[in-house]
Design brief:
Elements lengths: L1 H22 L15 H5 L27 H8 L14 H10 L5
Length: about 110
């Protein structure tokens, strides 16, 4: 019994090392950025999407909650756009994130 466990772990380690040797070293350096930026690139907005599971907006200081201890989120919200009404397509975290990031309705 113990020998079978050791053999399975050995096979798993061999498989993992083969996989890492094939796919682990294939990173490429990012392309160099041009030094002269265009006006179109400068006009694009910076977007920060904060998703926190089980955190309600009415518990954040930027939405008027007086006992909130969220100074960093409040500071980001003060310099950006806050949405007053949002709707989740799915009441589950992973499908909801997939819907937000892809724009596709859940199936």
């Amino acid at each position: 019994m113990l020998l079978k466990i050791v053999m399975k772990r050995g096979r798993a380690l061999i498989l993992l090392s083969c996989w890492l040797s094939v796919f682990g070293g294939n990173s490429q350096a990012p392309p160099a950025r041009a030094t002269g930026g265009t006006k179109a690139a400068a006009a694009r907005p910076n977007i920060v999407l904060i998703t926190i599971d089980t955190l309600r907006a009415d518990r954040l200081g930027c939405y008027g909650y007086s006992s909130a201890d969220t100074p960093n989120i409040d500071r980001l919200a003060a310099g950006g756009i806050r949405f007053k009404t949002t709707v989740a397509q799915v009441p589950l975290t992973l499908p909801s994130h997939a819907t937000i990031l892809t724009g596709a309705l859940p199936t």
